[in-house]
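hi! just following up on the protien thing from before. the input was this:
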Amino acid sequence: MPDRDKVRLMTRLALFEEKYGRMIRKAENTSRIDLITNPVWRWGFIVTLLFFAAAGVLAAFNIDMVLDSAARDQTRNLIMTVLIAWLSTLAVTVVISSVLSVARERRLSGLVIQYRQMLGQLERSAAMSDRNNRSMDSSSDEDVLWDEPSGGAPGHRRRRGHEEDLDYRNMQVLEFEDDDYCYYVEAVPKRGGRRG
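and the predicted 3d structure came back as:
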């Protein structure tokens, strides 16, 4: 992958982390079942508190009706009405918060998958760049040794790693000529190879 694409991918990843990083870290550190159930429990608790707070305020404003019900021995009916209303409200809250939690968990899972794919692309890109750099380094001029010319003879090139395969004692200098140039080529035979 060219460096331009790598920079573009890193920029996308940084923007993605800035926008969704907190959500992704939370999703990675929390189990799937907790991502779904925790909001349900939280909303159930909040709705219960709000319901009984509202019931208390309503009872305070209608204290005469509450006292009349208690005097007529209808307290049990009043308590049953409050409990049925609370359970109905809680059931609706649990259903709605469950649906929203599942939808949110699916969205978070999609974001985590997308984030991991981008990280994988970036890692593959970095590995490919390292491999290319290593292969370029191994074939660059740093890996080519130049022998100093002696007595006006041209120097010869040797590649690292191939020295043990070559027989420099039997090296020959060959001369070629065309209309424009005269060429001097050093031929180094391989060890154990045929010599003519």
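The chain has four helices and four strands.
Residues 141-146, 148-156 have pLDDT under 50 and may be disordered.
cheers
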